[in-house]
Records
---
Amino acid sequence: MIRVVLADDQVLLRAGLRALLDAEDDIEVVGEAGDGAEAVTLVEALAPDVVLMDIRMPGTDGLEATRLIAADDAMAATRVVILTTFDLDEYVFEAVRIGASGFLVKDAEPTELLRGVRAVAGGDALLSPGVTRRLIGEFASRSRDTSAPASRELSRLTEREREIVGLVGEGLSNDEIAARLVVSPATAKTHVSRAMVKLHARDRAQLVVLAYESGLVRPGWTRD
């Protein structure tokens, strides 16, 4: 059972999300929060698998709440999905950089939202290739120059693992990476998992951020 906390200051939106999620056999909404501070308290108490977190809330906003959850070892197993009104939101990149596993637009189709919750609960990043190029590429270029510490971290990787991280940075799935490199999906998944362990990345979203911050992938690049 996937346990979910909803964090949004709009009561009607939370009610709609709860009705949608609770109708599924494998998903249960275990708590609701109207602001970021309440969301952090619920995560501490309930240890949900996923938090659907509005980025703009009164008081402690979703960005700060995400940072607090990701930085605390006791809560780090909880995956945060940012809810946003716009699919190109400057705060979303920062949220992913500090620990969110991806984002959903609030008017996403119900099937997309359910698929996203299940994907994040299973350890995947909720960043499609198109969104990765537009969102991460746009704001990685603004947020900081190439990070020397991030570049040094990549020295831990084999040449193949560096190549894999670059493809993850483009937003490719394991199946797409396998097709690009002519290997099996299982082999691609193994390389991704090893890279995550070596780089201490909590999920694929963190690999995307590292790929950009290290300069391994730059905004606008696409590998042939």
Note: The chain is about 55% helix and 10% strand.
---
Amino acid sequence: MTYCVGLRLNKGLVFMTDTRTNAGVDNIAKVRKMFSWHKPGERMITIMTAGNLATTQSVVSTLDERSKVPAERNPSLLEVPTMFQAARLVGETLRETIKMNSHSGQTAEAKFGATIIVGGQIKGMPPRLFLIYPEGNFIEATEDNPFFQIGETKYGRPILVRGFDPDMSFEQAVKLLMVSFDSTLKANLSVGLPLDFQIYRTDDYAPAHEQRVEQDDPYFQTIASEWAGALKGAFDSLPDPEFQGGPPVTQTPGGGR
């Protein structure tokens, strides 16, 4: 399993993903799931992948080869005129990869399924963020739906829903994602460190910051420790329930507690 998040801020985009892949508890590996293509001063496009590893690696390799050897029938991410067309290209590549694999060996297409987050900016247009489904179709992030998650999404979603603000700074966005990923790491062993994250500032056409967060990263350790303490403190500060019609359930027959 995996966990990836893409945020659309008023200032730009933020991406974060884990690096764990597994085929059972005794077959765990570390694999990069974030990839970028850019032309200085013209475009910056980043994708994050979740799902069948053979499928996602094939999609990334195909997109990368096309960017190095462009062809008329197979435009590359460095040639498409809009981010919509970039999302369409990724979706078509994903769909074709799944279709090709489903006709050889196993027959169930779900075995080869994958989802992809695509985000970036092409000069003359604003940054855009898309979620690509295995069927090749996609949706775009909007003001009402300003972030996308793929992979093991349920554990980290509550903090994003409660804490996200499109006006937040990049530093606040990374802090929010760190908490979201810490919650997921605590709840699911199929998601694991290190984490990769990237910050894209509008009109830069290159990453503003890229970083790998290792197990011993002091900031991540601080976030994990202080968030756990804050949750415990918030829980302890909440009032206990009052049960009507009898003594407190914690009271002993002798009057003690």
Note: The mean pLDDT is 92.
---
Amino acid sequence: MESRDKILNALKKKFSDTPAALPVLKAYSQSSIDLVEKFEFVLRGIGGRTVRANTIHEINEYIRQEFADAKRIVSLTDGVNGTPITPDIDPHTFADVDLIILQPHFAVAENAAAWITAERMGDRALPFIAQHIALVVYTDSIVHTMHDAYNKISNANYPFGTFIAGPSKTADIEQSLVLGAHGPKSMTVFLISK
């Protein structure tokens, strides 16, 4: 018997097939934290920006002004101007998308991440291939922590989902930060109060 097999057999004997129960984490009181302010603060810290809007019309006006040079804007958010896409479209046609506008299910204050699943993306490639990304988040959908986020999605059934937080960024060994190296150059989150 090889050493590898001996080690694996020893581990099998030591650990049962039934995984140990995970410890119950004590929830911390978050009642005094303003979730919207926390989300905005964290998003700024990771290179994104927030825009508070009262209506979809305000979002359309902001996009018209700030992305006036955009050649192709794709919107998968009701009421927000942009070209829609169909599920059968070839992802190779997304190479020229300057801005993608999506509406995630919810956002997380502690890390400014937003949870979005396949049915709200149009195609999995879109949030990662577009030059810029914009999200429309209703403020009452922001949760405190990733623990709260995982509690919301733990029993859901979806083919694909991801957390998106800020624009793409990378740093070399000299700590030179580059935004948009392998994904969107910017991320704008429109915050709407209901």
Note: The first strand starts at residue 49 and ends at 53.
